[in-house]
Amino acid sequence: MSILRDIMAFNQSFVEEKQYEQYVTDKFPGKRAVILTCMDTRLVELLPKALNLRNGDVKIVKNAGAILTQPFGSAMRSILVAIYALGAREVFVIGHHGCGMTKLDSDAMVEKFKEEGIEASVIDTLEQSGISMKRFLRGFDSPEDGVKHSVDIIRNHPLLPRNIPVHGLVIDPTTGALDLIDEDTRPIEAEQ
After folding, report:
1. Is 97 annotated as a binding-site member?
2. Is there a single domain that holds both residue 74 and residue 134?
3. Which reaction(s) are listed as its catalytic activity (predicted)?
C-alpha cells in the first residue's frame, strides 16, 4: 500500500501550520561545502546531527554507497554545480560502515531484476550496447575503499578547480562516530 496519501495529508497540515518556517534558508550552502554520501536511511537525520549541520549549511548529494561509477554522471554533475553555481569550496565524501554496496553481488541483482519481470533479453540488449551490469552495479570491498575511489575520481576530475579540497570519511550509522580516511590539506581560498 502506498504512503502517498499519508504524505499528502501531513504535508497539507505542515504548510497550513507554517511548520516550514524553521527550515527557511536560501539555496547557497552557508558552510560552503558539498557532501557526497550514501542514501542509507540511517543517515537521513544522523549524518547532519553528527556533523553539527543545520538546514542550509551544506549541499548533500546522495546515492548508493556514495560511490561514483563514472566521472560524468549525475552525482559528479551535482558536485560541480554546488561548486560553480552555489559557492561550495570544499567537498566531503562520507561512506558508512555496514553499507549495502559492500561486496554487492551484481549477478544476484540481475537475477532479482528477472524475478521482478525484467526480460533476460533486456539485460542482453543492454550488455550488447556496452552497459556492463557488473560495472553498473559495482560495489566495493569495504566502505573505506569506496570512499577512496570516489575521492580519487573527484580530486582528479578535469573540471574540478585545483583549489577545492576533497576529504574522505566513514561514519558509523549507529553512533555517528567519524573515521577520517583521507584529509586533503590544500588550503581553502579565503572568502571574497
Report:
1. no
2. no
3. hydrogencarbonate + H(+) = CO2 + H2O
CATH number reported for the structural domain that contains residue 153 in this entry: 3.40.1050.10
CA 17 to chain CA mean position, Å:
32
The reported pLDDT for the residue numbered 1 is 82
For residue 9, being part of any structural domain is answered with no
- Strands 166-171 and 178-182, sheet pairing: antiparallel
pLDDT, tens digit, 9 for 90 and up, residues 73-95: 999 999 999 999 999 999 999 99
In contact, 168 and 93? CB cutoff 8 Å: yes
Q: Is residue 11 part of a domain?
A: no
Q: Are 126 and 144 within one domain?
A: no
Whether residue 124 is annotated as binding a ligand: the answer is no
Q: How many domains, the chain?
A: 2
6 is in an annotated binding site: no
Q: How many residues does the chain have?
A: 192
Q: For 6-17, how does the pLDDT look when each residue is reduced to its tens digit (9 = 90+)?
A: 999 999 999 999
